[in-house]
Amino acid sequence: MILSDEGIKEVISLGLIEIDSPPQADQYTSSALDLVLGGNFKIWDPDLFDVQGTEIRLDLSSQDYLQTAKAYLKDADCENDGSCILAPYSRGENKSYAPQGNVFTWPMIRC
Description:
Elements lengths: L4 H9 L14 E2 L2 E2 L8 E3 L1 H4 L8 E2 L5 H8 E3 L22 E3 L2 E3 L6
Antiparallel strand pairs: 1-2, 3-5, 4-7, 6-7
């Protein structure tokens, strides 16, 4: 469903979508709302997963995400202008990190 700017404002006012802090008028376009995500970003720390001979499986249905995130995330490096380029994780040709159902997998992770 694509909402107009007025439709977006309506669902926000009805509480169907929550945005903190409320958007300013200049953030709306005809069918979009431009959001600022924040000043810092976290990424999965590849050094913790890229250990020869290890196999790691994160089953999101049976673990506490906040505990796992605290153990395995690190601050992303940002550019001098404050922007962060969050490239998809990959390990070599045709190997990418992607969610598989409830399990977030890396190439060396077997599901």
